[in-house]
Structure formats: structure tokens, C-alpha cells
Design brief:
This protein is mostly beta strands. Helices cover 0% and strands 32% of the residues. The protein has a nine-stranded mixed sheet, with no helix packed on it. Strands 3-6-9-12-15-18 form a six-stranded parallel sheet, with no helix packed on it. It has a four-stranded parallel sheet with strand order 2-5-8-11, with no helix packed on it.
């Protein structure tokens, strides 16, 4: 991470008044950051991305090409948004009955370390837990637990993902214990059926 370097904003990008951009962040071609948006440090904003108005983007977030992050969406630290994935922010849009005030927007929160695959759609009003892994092309219509691996239309949980992104394997001799073959982290399902790290 660059830490102390100034934000780098391509000359073709538009940044409205009242936008905050953290140190080390890069904003690439043909982007538009709207008023009231805050982008953290060391983010990478790909080509043709629109963010805002009044969107919160954490630190070290990567938003790939052709993504729009609309008002009502919050991206926590270390989130990855794949190319052309989609956020919505109004549950029942109608052109003849405009719904364009902050009160009309259903809040969507994407937890720290989550990755969202290319062309996935996140329907507004959901909360995605930290370190979830959303498969390419998935249509997410309900909340996603932390560390969950989900894909399909509608998206359903198909397993668990490690913090490092590898699909977890169930332990052969310990029920409700999951292991990462790549980084060695282990996890356990607690009494609420949530997955929690067990070797921190």
C-alpha cells in the first residue's frame, strides 16, 4: 500500500465538490464521484465507475470496471467488487413515481474483506457479512453470513470461504470444524450456526 502518496485521479474523471478521497487511492478513466461520497485510502477505482452521492467506501477497496455504487451502499475495508457487478438501491422503482430521496433508498452494507464476483447483482436492503465470497453472476436477494460462499440465481449458500478466499474443507474427525488448505486457518460453527475463526 502506498500509505503517504496523494490520490491519483485520471484527467477524464469527474470528482464533485464535497468528495473526500484518501491517500494512495487511484481513480481511473471516465469515473464520476458524486457529492458527499467518502473514499478511504489505498483504493483502486477502475474505469467507468460511478460512486455516490453520499456513499461510504472503506480503505483498500477495489472496484473493477463498469460498477455503479449508489446512495445507500456502504463498502467496508478490503472489499472487492468484480467487473460489471450491480448494486441497486430502490426496492420498487417506477419512472412515473420517482423515488429519489434518501428515505427511498434501502441500505446495503458489504462487510470487510468480502469479494463480489463479476456480473453479480446485489439487491438493495441486504447485509453481507465480513469475508463472504459472492460467485460471479449471483443474484443476492437476502442477507449473507460472514465467511459464506454463495452463488446462483437466487444466490444460496454452498459452503464457507476462508479469510484468504479459499473454499474451506470440513474436518474429517471434528464436526462443525472447517480448515483452510492454503493458509492453515481453522474455523468452527458456533451455537448460533455462525462461522467464527478458532485459531487466532
Amino acid at each position: 500500500m502506498s500509505g503517504a502518496s496523494k490520490p491519483r485521479i485520471h484527467e477524464s474523471a469527474y470528482v464533485d465538490d464535497g468528495v473526500e478521497i484518501g491517500l494512495g487511492t487511484q481513480v481511473w478513466h471516465f469515473c464520476h464521484l458524486l457529492t458527499g461520497t467518502r473514499v478511504g485510502r489505498d483504493c483502486r477505482i477502475g474505469q467507468n465507475v460511478v460512486i455516490g452521492p453520499r456513499v461510504e467506501v472503506g480503505n483498500n477497496v477495489k472496484i473493477q470496471n463498469n460498477v455503479s455504487v449508489y446512495e445507500g451502499v456502504t463498502l467496508e475495508d478490503d472489499v472487492f467488487c468484480g467487473p460489471s457487478m450491480v448494486f441497486t438501491n430502490v426496492i420498487t422503482p417506477r419512472c412515473a413515481f420517482p423515488r429519489n430521496t434518501a428515505a427511498d433508498f434501502a441500505k446495503t452494507r458489504v462487510g470487510r474483506g468480502t469479494s463480489i464476483g463479476a456480473n453479480a447483482t446485489i439487491v438493495c436492503g441486504v447485509t453481507i457479512g465480513p469475508h463472504a465470497l459472492i460467485g460471479a453472476g449471483a443474484v443476492v436477494t437476502k442477507d449473507v453470513p460472514a465467511y459464506a460462499l454463495v452463488y446462483g440465481n437466487p444466490a444460496r449458500q454452498r459452503g464457507w470461504a476462508c479469510e484468504c478466499g479459499t473454499r474451506l474443507q470440513a474436518s474429517a474427525n471434528q464436526p462443525d470444524v472447517y480448515l483452510c488448505q492454503d493458509c492453515g486457518r481453522t474455523y468452527a460453527v458456533d451455537e448460533t450456526t455462525a462461522l467464527v475463526p478458532s485459531n487466532r
